[in-house]
Design goal:
11 strands, about 210 residues, Lipocalin, mainly beta
Length: about 210
Amino acid sequence: MYSKSSAISPNTGVTASNRPRFEGKTMTAPVQTAPATGAKTTWKLDPTHTLVEFSAKHLMITTVKGRFADVEGIINVDEKTPRNSSVEATLKAVSIDTRTDQRDQHLRSGDFLNAEQYPEIKFRSTSIEGDRKEFKLMGDLTIRDVTRPVTLNVQFEGQTKDPWGGERVGFSASGKIDRRDFGLTWNQVLEAGGVAVGNEIKIGIEVEAVKVE
């Protein structure tokens, strides 16, 4: 866009002295800090650029990490009144991946997720507190048909245009749950004391979402 002071008068024409100069400049898509004020928009999670990770203590001394590979969700943003925004997400329980097939099969079994009977893990937001850049996202998490409230600490990472003309936003989030609250109580007592699997599950999320036109 040109300012009024630099606009070319329709009566003067384009000359060497007033011709706009673009030589040596590369057109790039700037990262914006937030969507336009007052906008109401819908964004769909891009599963290929979204990561839902979890971690738990093993044998009381180390941390095992895993992820859910199959995730989908929708973000509805009310920029004028952020607290009216909402998030819904679904994870396929069978897509759990800790890079060890034997362990993954156990986690899908009735001792843990019981993925055959309860194929989906669902999250639905209930409220939001904070500003546009950092906020707490409260919601209901359902695992094995048991629903409990959870809180995620969320940070807005930016907004930009992709090479195909679409608009994208990024968020990161973290939180934790006690797996026993969802009926995931399987464990083994260790001979030396303690248990095989920690009860606290830490959650780490990286989201990239595409604007729905």
